[in-house]
Amino acid sequence: MADWSGLLPELLMEISKKIDLIQDFVNFGCVCKPWLRAASAAKFNTKCRLPLLMLAEKEKTHVQEFYDISMGGQIHQLDLPVAPGSSIFPTLGWLVVVLETNADMIMLHPLSRRIINLPNPISLTEELVENGITWLPHFLKAVLSADPCLSSDWILMIIYDGIGKLAFVKNGDKAWTAIDAPISSCSDIYYYERRFYGVDYQGRIAVCDVHGPNPTAGLLISRIPTSLNALVGCKFYLAEWCEKLVVIHRSLPKFKKVFRVFEIDFTHKGNWVEVSHLGSKAIFLGFNSSITVDASEFRRCKRNCIYFTDDSLEGYVDSEDGRDMGIYNMANRSVEPHFEEESCPEIIPRWLEPHFDGSTRAPLIPSWVQLNF
């Protein structure tokens, strides 16, 4: 019988680089220790991964469920060291976790379980005590500038306080830094070409150069054209499409579901140019940082579509109408479901990019896989 563990490490690394699906990569590393070492050294190609839909944790456990579109709706389970009731915001393969009890914050890599401790952001807001209860800040989104697995020069920006304020923390900082943004009620943030961009519910876009000499100052660079004033007050997102920054308008849940995409033309004073077709791209929106993939590389991903989840917490918890999720087709404006089963009504599903930790010191194997050597 052939000794598969005796294959040259260089050959194993080249084989592992050809693997497209996470499950196949995991199984490759489960064969034996030499194969696991080769997979760890080669790392997993995460540049073109379909996002996983993060569902609810199992009741009274730390088990989190993930819905895998690329595997035809297969459900994965991960045992995560996260306290029940915590707020979770996916970004670049990491989970930014805020504890419900005291707003302590960490970044958790869900596959390797690596944890990065962050400063407590409670100092960003004035302490509010009512009837003996201290009210903690409310968080809306968290976005990384770079994957901490790949770079130590990362920055994390958050939308907080329920009214869309902005703050950031750099690797090694002991406290959060608030941003003096020229916009109010920030709706979304995105990192693009070494700068953070934010858009508010009024359709105004600001940029913050966190790497520059004045990282706390925001600059207003664009605002919605007067011809589109009817869109003001609705949800706006920021994303990247064909190496361009785009703003995406989402209609209110009570109206017919419509998404409109606009390119921000920086060569003409930040003009909004409507994009009618996404080509081969698909965009994933929600409580996560926006994700764009080339759908032509995936058999089960629909091109020219927007995959969206509900990011209205009040509507999601209080009303069946608030469970506003699906796949929006830009060509015919139709909507179809991407996940038909109900998740826990207290946990809004969100998209997670499946990144593997490139560190050879941390295990690359998720907890749903049993290793047998």
TrEMBL record:
Pfam families: Beta-prop_KIB1-4. This is KIB1-4 beta-propeller domain-containing protein. Transmembrane segments: none annotated. It comes from Dillenia turbinata. Residues 66-329 form the KIB1-4 beta-propeller domain. PANTHER family: F-BOX PROTEIN SKIP23-LIKE (PTHR44259:SF108), OS07G0183000 PROTEIN-RELATED (PTHR44259).
